[in-house]
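quick one before i forget lol
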Amino acid sequence: MTTATDWRWPAEWEPQDAVLLAWPHAETDWAANLADVQANYLDLLRAICRFQTAVVIVPDAGTESEVRARLGAGFESAKTLRFAHAAYDDTWLRDSGPVTLVTDNAFLLSDFRFTGWGGKYEASRDDLLVSALHSANLFRRASVGSWDFALEGGAIDGDGAGTVLTTWHCLHERHPALDREALSARLSEMLHASRVLMLEHGELQGDDTDAHIDTLARFAAVDAIVFQSCDDPDDSHYAALGAMANEIAGLRTAKGHPYRLFALPWPQPIHAADGRRLAASYANFLIINGAVLMPAYGDAADSGAVAVLAQAFPGREIVAVPCRALIEQNGSLHCITMQLPRGVLNVES
């Protein structure tokens, strides 16, 4: 492991080279609603490629040809679409992809142990994905920093200035023998963070990640947090998300000031055909160059969420991307993507 002391985890709103995704195919968990999910991915790829490059991981050349054909030749001529070939179990790149740290002239691909969210799902190939992509020459000036520590990218959010936001519930589920102090110390070591803010409250029904922070609350700036609220006292989430909102209001920036807070509206309950409550969160947005891509669920609250994000991210276009099919498998837009910071993508690969 590198001993450099100047590594930094950049914020998602900093300049990016690309967004990394893995294409859903019949051998992934999307098989039951594959057509709808692939349509969502095509919408997402079109949205990303309006602003920057998308790198799509596929299992083979035949799948690459299929995706290219469905997107159309215009993406090739615009040079905003690239492919990488690798084996993978599923497509949750936020959790199996690289958490990239930067210095002035190098990149560290943090490769945590991916256990399928605490052993819930098979994840042996996903756990090897970062090394596989590095070996495929996808990155430049980059080394892999492997950590024998179970951690998913969706469980952490950073402000680019040394503060990490996470949840106690998720980290405790992965590491029941460690207390808050020990967990904070490990995150600080691995992410070169100066402080860790660990929320005690908040979890969405239908979320099998054990309360990933990217479904609950996200940094919009070093002094701003966007969070998922619930204003329906009859909803089962009302008490927990209300307690989370109060907890966030009590947080302070590194300079000791209250955060500017932006509360996202609450969509009406969405259920799967089998009656399961699905985890529909507007906090699962993706920040890219010049825009914020927001998950839309065909709910009346979608437009209100767009308005809140426009306030939180002035100067960026807010693009609503249909994500109703994605939450059938308990995740949304941010969960299936991973941003690559400016300079790390190998332009010659």
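fyi Residues 268 and 340 are 33 Å apart (CA to CA).
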